[in-house]
Amino acid sequence: MRIRDVIQTSWRGITQARARSLLTMLGIVIGITSVILLLSIGTSATKLLLNQVQGIGSNLIFIVPGATKGSRFSSPPSVQGVVVKTLTAQDTDALSREGSVLRTAPEVRGQAKVVFENNDTTVTFEGTTADFFLVRDLEIARGAAFKESDVLSFNRVAVIGGTIAKTLFGERDPVGKTIHQLGKEGIGPFGVDQDNLVIIPITVAQKQLLGIDYYNVLLIQAHPDYNISYVVSRVTSVFRQTHRITDPSKDDFTVRTQEDALSLLGDITSIMTVFLTAVASISLLVGGIGIMNIMLVAVAERTREIGLRKALGANSRDITEQFLLEAVMLTSMGGVVGILLGSSLVVLLYFILSRVLPTGWFFALPPTAIFLAVAVAALTGILFGIYPARQAAKKDPIEALRYE
User: Fold this and answer.
1) pLDDT per residue over 198-247, tens digit each?
2) Of the N and C termini of the chain, which has fewer Cβ atoms inside 10 Å?
3) Torsion angle (degrees, nearest 10) of CA 115, 127, 149, 177
């Protein structure tokens, strides 16, 4: 039997039962759409996270109190909410004498309610030094950053994020009220929304708000003349000497760089992508089972047709090819519709999230998702079409002609 005849016969079988064909395609359309949409979300989220980390600066080193034990996915106790008091002014003094360190900015954090006239909001405040603005290269939209003299004098000045400025002052200019506003900065280190952040002198935060004498984190800017790995080794050495640690396994601090964060994020997002793909694959599996079931029903309904074709000379191979090609054509058409629908939803999702999220949303329609969708659609048609096709080919022509 010529391939053209097989295609024509298969197409006729599909068009003669449009409702059944549409139901067969529906499972594949949903599965393919899910694969494209979920892989796109995973890729976009990965780009967003990596962009945030890269935006912090490639020459920054973070010192967090407490040692990290276990796998690389583990976090120091201080990040998990445990109070660790091992970072103090003694550390910043020691780092100021280290030539490979350009600047050091200690930080402490807390939460408080901010009130202006009849407006109030609960915010995260961060106490730090004047060097913080240089280390983070923060843009000041209006006003100016506080100076080191403000830190030493315990001056009650603050720099606030754009979101807080709008909440408290509306369209009024907050400058002149000892309040200054940051430019739009988005999500910063440790997941802090900097547009909803109040930055104040560290002395005010420690002594007047928190009542502590230790730091939550130390932010170090490496000197551009030195390799970041060398600076990490020198900083580690300084801390062990200052903390009188001779056994590295007893470190009471954790050193992290941007490369560490990127590597960890890469591992996490890879796992997330695999998980999302597995979830979407379940939809395809369900769609494939649906195809097999509906094709089996089609075989039963077309028993007399099969008997007639065999009586006119068609062999088992011809019958197998016909029903198998029908399954492949149905899944291929479902795959095309799924690709178009999935791509449209990706575009729609981008326009919505890019306007809703404060940090924006990256558009991502990975070619691998489309290639995977096409390959899986064809493979699904073959795998789940073989059994019904073989069942059709096995029918005895005489018994098939007698079938009511």
Assistant:
1) 899 999 999 888 889 899 999 998 888 888 889 999 999 999 999 998 88
2) C
3) -20
